[in-house]
Design goal:
This is Protein MtfA. This protein is an alpha/beta fold and about 260 residues long. It has helices at about 1-15, 20-30, 40-55, 70-80, 140-145, 155-165, 180-200, 215-230, 230-240, 240-250, 255-260; strands spanning about 55-60, 95-100, 105-115, 115-125, 125-130, 135. The chain has 2 domains: about 1-150, Glucose-regulated metallo-peptidase M90, N-terminal domain (Cyclin A, domain 1, Orthogonal Bundle); about 170-260, Collagenase (Catalytic Domain), CATH 3.40.390. The chain is about 50% helix and about 15% strand. The protein is globular. The model has no long low-confidence stretch (mean pLDDT about 95).
């Protein structure tokens, strides 16, 4: 109770400050999706960004100096995922944002059986930890801002994992959903679309969705979220049922808004 009161008081203080002109310039130049939002949604997004930037612990890694631009860009993409929710989601389980200048090497542990554990390193551009940090590559974020990686955005990807983990550490591709009806439809559509993508990727067929999404249900949600926000009209064209369930979950229909 006391914690909630303190958090509410702190956020009121944060929001008493206006959204600066410099931040506004960064926002509109970085996230093209902002132009599609209604006035109410745009105002909500800016509130979410202010709280996100203020409340997270930010760390620059490998010599990267964090700037307001970096923080606002990351916050904008993260908060776009939840601007359509009927409540204000602040990613309270995300304690820190660690930003590397580019891809980095992460430790990997693999259990191969009978007590044998292999440890090594793997190149990465992002990670999402349960009740922990989100780790991101600034170079890859900049490529998404410049729209040089169609359908891909590492911030959308990793924060989709964070939404997935709102109901537990198991990244199973099913975040908390608002109704049993949506849950039933979600599982039916997601399972069918994942199976279809997996088969197409195994057979070397061209796919709209990145084959990394065929890894498992959790990665499928993250990959489809990237394409939903980065290429909504193409997504709806190639995967109308999948687009529909994601649109209902995220509370946004960017494909329709882009046509207005």
């Amino acid at each position: 109770m006391i914690f909630n009161w303190l958090a509410s008081r702190r956020r009121k203080k944060i929001l008493s400050e206006s959204f600066s002109a410099d931040w506004e310039q960064v926002l509109v130049n970085s996230a093209w999706q902002v132009r599609l939002l209604s006035a109410v949604q745009g105002e909500k997004l800016r509130r979410l960004i202010q709280v996100f930037v203020a409340e997270k612990n930010w760390e620059g890694c490998n010599g990267l100096t964090l700037t307001d631009e970096i923080k606002v860009v990351i916050a904008a993409f993260a908060c776009l995922l939840v601007v359509g929710f009927d409540y204000e989601e602040h990613f309270e389980n995300v304690l820190s944002i660690l930003v590397y200048p580019a891809g980095y090497m992460g430790k990997e542990t693999q259990v191969v059986g009978s007590g044998l554990v292999l440890e090594g390193e793997q190149a990465r551009i992002g990670e999402a930890w349960y009740r922990g940090p989100v780790i991101l590559s600034w170079t890859d974020i900049r490529l998404a801002v410049a729209r040089q990686t169609p359908g891909r955005n590492v911030v959308f990807h990793e924060f989709a994992h964070q939404l997935d983990m709102l109901n537990g550490r198991n990244v199973d591709g099913t975040p908390p959903l608002r109704s049993e009806e949506l849950l039933t439809r979600w599982r039916t559509v997601m399972d069918a679309e994942l199976a279809e993508l997996s088969q197409a990727c195994r057979q070397g067929e061209p796919t709209f969705l990145d084959c990394y999404g065929a890894t498992n249900s959790g990665e499928f949600l993250a990959v489809t979220t990237e394409s939903f926000f980065e290429a909504p009209r193409h997504f709806r064209r190639f995967h109308p049922e999948l687009y529909s369930v994601l649109s209902e979950y995220y509370g946004l229909d960017l494909a329709a808004l882009a046509e207005m």
